[in-house]
Structure formats: C-alpha cells, structure tokens
Amino acid sequence: MNEKDLHVVLATDNNYAEFVAVVIVSLLQTNPQFESIHVHLLANGVNDATIQKLQHHLLQDRAQLHVYDISDLEQRLGIQVPNSIAISAYARLFMASLLPTDLDRVLYLDCDVVVSDDITSFWEMNIEGFLIAGVLDTLSTNRTKTDIGLPTDAPYVNSGVLLINLKSWREENMQQCFLDFLLSHNGHVTHHDQGIINATCHGRIQIVHPRFNLASNYLSHPYKMLASMNTPFYSENEVEEAKKYPAIIHFTQGFYNRPWVKNSMHPLVERFNYFHKQTEWDGTPLRPDKRSLAMRILSWVFLNLPLWMYNATQRIIKKIK
Questions:
Q1: What is the CATH number for 106?
Q2: For residue 220, which of 258, 192, 193 has the smallest C-alpha distance?
Q3: Which of 28, 134, 178, 308 is the most buried (most CB within 10 A)?
Q4: Do residues 79 and 127 make contact, with C-beta atoms less than 8 angstroms apart?
C-alpha cells in the first residue's frame, strides 16, 4: 500500500450509481494532491453498462475503479434484515474479506456525499489502537444507544463517512463480530449497520472534526438543540467551522430534502449540482418527494417558523393521526 495513494470504498446498487459518479468527480477535483486514487466499489446488482458509465469518470492516470460483486449480500448476512434502507449499506460490514489484504486502511463514503475540500489530514490521521474514526451523529433520542447496549454518554458516530483500520478489522475478526451482533438481535438492529458498527467498536472509536461529515442536521438544527440531545458533542466553534469549511458534505435525509429530489431546500444544493453536471447523468430528472404530507408540513414549519410553532404543529398532527 503506497502511503501517497488514497483508497476509498463505496457501496451501491443500480439505483444509486448516479450518485457514486458525483462522489468520484468531487473527490478527484478537490484532492489533486494524491498520486493515485483507488475507488473500491461494492456493487449489488450493478449492470455492466452502468459500470462502464462510472468508469468514464476515472479515465485518467491517477484514478482506478475496482469492482466487487456483492449481489449475494443476503446470503452473506445469514438473516433477513428490514428493508427500510437499501441492503447495500450492509456491505461495509464485509470489507475485511472483500478488499485486498495489503490494504491497512480505507475511507468509506456513503453515496450521498460530496467531497468539497482537502481530506489529507483525515486520511493520514493516526488510528493505531482504534477500529474506526468518524464524526458524531446527531441523535434525537438516547434509545438509539440504549437499544444496542451502549450507555447514553457513549460516543456514537455516523457510519456514512468512516476511516477504517482494516488491518485491525482482520486481526480481530470484526466481520464475525458484526454478524454475531446482527444475529443476536434477530436481524433487527436500531439504525441497521450503523448500530452494529457503533456497538461492536465501542471504546475503539476515534472522533474527528465535524467538517469531515457535515450531515444535514448540522445545518438545519440550532446548535443548542443538537448539543442538548447529544452527549458527547462538539463545541459551538467546531460546528461553525464545519458549516463554513466543510470537507465532506453528507446529504442525509431530514428536514432539508436531498439535492436530487424536487424542491430541495438544502442550502448546499448548488455544490451537489456543480459536480452532478459533470457526470454522465447530467440532465437526469429530479426524483419525486416521497415523504408523507405530514413530514413535508413539519419540515417547512421547522425551517421557516419559530420552534414553538413546530412543536404545536407536531402535536396537532399526532392528534389527527
């Protein structure tokens, strides 16, 4: 493994391949300092035509695409999991056995991110003794932690952007730890694979600056609200730095809709559009907003009116239901 190379892992099915292209274009443009960038794609039923389209975004000397077929993911898991998220998300649990054995570390990225600045300091950080490094998630309830056996004051990271100590994952057989945890919960783990990773890596998680995974809630929610609901959490200065100088923007689902959905209100939608226009999917129609009417109303109220009006609207909707 060349220290000047960057190794990035993404997982997708055909439905999200469009956004893999956006990640690739943004990564190449904002990080020219790496001599070589290797994109390791965990592909769940991605057809050859789509792989070729993705390949067009890496046709240069410093970038390579490596494809791994994970269409047998359900069999690998050994148990049925809820279909509330794409099953491809569980693919990250198998990286230790799928990827080349000479890779000691990899950067995992969800398909709904855009790389907008230099990530060298993140990629090169010392993770000796840690299993993963990531950004604290913004949780709305402590049950997310207690449901997976964590204390309420335990660090809990968003698994959409993770620096992974793949060497330690192999040495400590983390893949089997993940599967054992999933089986012990009969396939139903709160927050799916993210819950599995946080529970099994507890005590071995390195926390990094939020600019390396600026999720939507960091932008839509007041700092005091986030800090009051999450322990541990970042200082207000750290959150403000992340909002001003994001290195990785994560377009998570929330009150801001995603950039590829009609009528998105996300404040960084133009950053996504800038890179999307440079992909083979330029001109693809925006996708419909599939959120419920109640969720759309609550989102608009939260983003545009005082908090007390949001709380009142939420109570009214609950009574109606």
A1: 3.90.550.10
A2: 258
A3: 134
A4: no
Closest CA to 120 of 210, 3, 242: 3
SS3 214: strand
Residues 276 and 270: their CA atoms lie apart, in Å, by 9
Estimate to the nearest angstrom the gap between the alpha carbon of 248 and the chain centroid: 10
Q: Residue 114: which domain range?
A: 5-289
Does 306 lie in the same domain as 178?
no
* Burial (0-12, 13-18, 19+ Cβ within 10 Å), 205: buried
Residues 237 and 314 occupy one common structural domain: no
Q: What is the DSSP letter of 254?
A: S
Taking the chain (321 residues) in consecutive chunks of 10 residues, what is each chunk's mean pLDDT? Answer: 84 95 97 95 95 89 92 89 82 96 97 98 97 97 96 97 98 96 94 96 98 97 96 98 98 94 94 97 94 91 90 87 69
Residues 193, 118, 126, CA angle at the centre, nearest 5°? Answer: 60
Pairing of strands 36-44, 157-165: unpaired
pLDDT in tens, 100-139: 999 999 999 999 999 999 999 999 999 999 999 999 999 9
CA 251 – CA 264 distance, rounded (Å): 11
Q: Dump pLDDT digits (tens) for 245-256.
A: 999 999 999 999
Q: Which two tokens stand for residue 71?
A: 């269409």
